[in-house]
Amino acid sequence: MARRPLPRILTAKQPLARGRGFARSAADGATDVLHPLITVSRGLRRLAAAGRRRWNATPKDRRGPVLFFLAACLLLVGLAPYGPLVALIALMGAAAWAGRERTSTTGPTPAQTARLQALYEALVPYLSAAEDPKPLFTHGGDWRQSFREYAFDESGRVTELRLRYPPYFTDGEQASRNRIEQVLHAKCGRGREYRFRWDEETGQLRMTVLPELPTGVCTQRFVASPGEIVLGFTDAEGVQRTLPVDENGATRDASPVVWRTGSRSHEPHLLVVGRPGSGVTTLLRSIALQGLPHGDVVVVDGGGAGEYACLIGRTGVPAVESGLAGALAILEWAAQETERRMVAVSRARQEGRPAPEEIRRQLWILVDRPVPLGHLAAVEGRTDPQELLDIPLRHGRAANVAVVVGEQFDAVGSLGRTVRAHTRARVTLGHAAAEQVAAVLGDPPHTTPTPRFPPGRGYARLGTGEVHRLQVPATPDPYDDDAPEAQRRSVLDLLPARAGVTLEKAEPAGARADG
Ligand SMILES: Nc1ncnc2c1ncn2[C@@H]1O[C@H](COP(=O)(O)OP(=O)(O)OP(=O)(O)O)[C@@H](O)[C@H]1O
């Protein structure tokens, strides 16, 4: 184990050790005395978080009546005799109930005790130091010294563990963390997905076994504002918002990863990287369907497999191009359109007017697999399509233009610098090593690899935020006969009607829908 040298104070003999012991028992005593207070405040925090989640999930048009109802309740409580007192007692009771620690109160069974002891022993070589006079981890020691919370599933495997580790453990170093995580992963049982949360401040590690992300959500009209894109769904504790989603005919609340685009977005452009067949095209198709009600979408299909054919000729889709010539033409047009929008926005600002109506309609530029097209362009001595993305990527935010680039892991190195610098919303899909994911997201996932990677499963990170597990809603090509009929129908239902194509502002030679 990589260890920091022990502070000299730890190597001093008995008096210091006695002092530490006294401090530790004083701290334990204080924790006992303050326990009810801690429980109630934890409960209040949980209740507040639940309230915030419900509020966010309430559609905007229902918030007024809800507020009115709450105000009426408050008034009633205020006017009733002893109302405020009873309400306060009820609130404290609810907080105490919500804040209780959810561990077994009867203590572990002998089999569970043996498991915890084995786990403890496995950690000893990594979390002990010979110079430590009062080690938390020692061979033959008691696991209760370190394991603060634990839970088991029906088969007797650990599903949750909170442990304390010694202050000299180098928890700031990824390699040290990896070693502990590997031991816990191996000893608690492979074949499950684990999340590790390191609390460096208090020297505690919380390990949780995660359930598989549900795969049953199909594309649908999500409750989201214009410019908001639901990339997929994640764990409830990772995001504050929930959305009602229809899953196999029943409605449930799901926790979405929402990507906000537009002029106030910190991450106006998105890069999606995946393994072949992991669902990159599906995610881009889902974004197109969500963007179309409030914007126009142009698609460059570098893979050329015709998986965007359903968009051809639809209202709001000026072009779907898969050939090099068509792709260059539509990207040139998109660059000019971005400039035109920038000029219009700047003029409106100078004249103290709001941005013109047609600029408030967002322009989406979806480029699936630009690298193969770039190779083709190099062979033919033509412009790399990625170069034409420079203006939309640099100035798209002000001009209400969003760029989405999809590429495969093995071609990420060939993505241009502007693409990499300006796509700060990131998604990876499919099975990949933690280093590969970290290279795209800028941070590794804090979960172990899942044993099963269904299509559309991956990770998302918006800017410098947390890495979320992600499951993209199923959005198959509606012309794919192998896709389930109900899912194909959902996609067809979301597609706008077919229309004549007009590019009013700057019609490029090749910018037409070829269908
Ligand atoms: N989120 C999802 N839910 C269900 N099925 C999915 C999902 N994403 C992809 N699929 C299915 O997986 C298959 C591959 O998807 P897709 O074509 O989107 O992958 P890709 O990464 O673009 O791969 P390629 O570049 O090889 O085409 C398709 O049959 C698709 O319907």
Automatic annotation (TrEMBL):
ATP binds at residues 274-281. The chain crosses the membrane at residues 66-99. Gene3D superfamilies: P-loop containing nucleotide triphosphate hydrolases. InterPro entries: FtsK_dom, P-loop_NTPase. Keywords: ATP-binding, Membrane, Nucleotide-binding, Transmembrane, Transmembrane helix. Residues 254-438 form the FtsK domain. It comes from the Bacteria. SUPFAM superfamilies: P-loop containing nucleoside triphosphate hydrolases. This is FtsK domain-containing protein. It comes from Streptomyces meridianus.
